[in-house]
Amino acid sequence: MAWSATLRLVALAGLLAQDASAQTGSARGSDFLRFGCSQLVIERTDPLVNPGMAPSPHMHQIVGGDSFNITMDPMTIDPPKQSRCTSCKMSEDFSNYWTASIYFRSPENGTFKRVPQMANGRLNGTLLEQEGGITVYYMQPFSGRNKKVTVMKPGFRMLTGDPTLRTKPAGSMKVCHRCLAKNERIMGGNGAPCDSGDTSEFPSKPCPGGIRATVIFPSCWDGKNLDSPDHKSHVAYQPGSALAGDQCPSTHPVRIPQVMYEIMYDTSGFADPKYYKNGQPLVYSFGDPTGHGQHGDYLFGWEDGALQRAMDALGTNCFSETCPVLKLQSPEKEIACTKAQQAKENIGTDQCSCNF
Questions:
Q1: Coil, strand, or helix at residue 314?
Q2: How far is CA 237 from the centre of its chain?
Q3: Cβ neighbours of residue 75 under 8 Å, at least 6 residues apart?
Q4: Does the keyword Signal apply (predicted)?
C-alpha cells in the first residue's frame, strides 16, 4: 500500500495521529514498521485452526520462518531457534503470516484459475523485491503522552476475520478490498487502509491494477493468554475503531503493536468486462464468492528483543522500510527461503482446492 502523498509526508514528519477518527479518515498517520515477505509456501495447512490436519479444509498462502509446520505447539516449537531462514525482509523475524488464496471462476466454462500474488510498492514508488507474498505492518499509533506498546510474547498467536461471513459485518471494517486502476498498480491508490473507498466484499468491477486486500488485527491484549480457544478472545480492538488509537478496553489493557497485512492479487489477467456481466467472478479458496469472509492468521516468532527495539525506535531513526536497529537481509535471501509442501498437491493456476 502507498498511503496518500499527504499522509506519507505527515508520517515522515512525525506528525502522528491524535485519535482514531483522524486515523481512519484524515491525512494523519501513525508510526509503523513496514516490510515485504516473499512466498514461503502455498498449501492446505493451518496450524492455528486445524493443527495436525493435512490437508486442511482450504488453501493458504504462507510467509515467514521456514519452521512453519502442520502442528506448531508453542510448548515444543520456537520459530527463531528452529527456523533456518525467513522469507521476510527483516532477518530477525521468523513469525508466520498467512491468508487465503483467491481463484478466478470462468463464467464461460466454470473452470478455476488461482489468482497470483504480486509485489507491493515502496513509499518511494518502486516495487518491493519479493515473489508474491505479503506486506506486513507493525503499527504504533499513539496520542499525546503515551506511545509505549508492549510486544507480544513467544507463543503468541491470533486470528482475525471470519471465513463463514457472507455479508458485511457491523462496525468498522477490519478486512477490506481495494480495486486498483492500472496506474495505481504500484502505489495502491490514495487513502488510509479500509477507508470509504474500500469494500468488505470483492470489487464489483474489473480491477486492471489488481486488488489490494487489507487485514487489520487487534491492538489490545489481555496480558495473560498467548492464545484462546477461538484465537480471538485474548485480543481486542480499540472501542469503535479497527485502527488503534490510545485506548484499550479494561478487559484487554495491554497495548500491543497493531499487525496489518496487505496482499496484492494480480487480477490484470481477469479484468475483461465480459467476465463481470453476470456478477464478479472471484472466489476465496474456502468457497466464499462474496469476499466478506477473508481472514488472516498470525504466529509471533521474532528473535528475543528485536521487535521491541524497533517499536521503541519508531518516530526517531526507525520508520517504515528503514529501521537501523533491525537486521535486514537481501532480496535474494528472502526469495530463496521457501518450504516444500507438507500437504502435497498441485497449486498451479489451473487448479482449485476450494471448499465448495
A1: strand
A2: 16
A3: 155
A4: yes
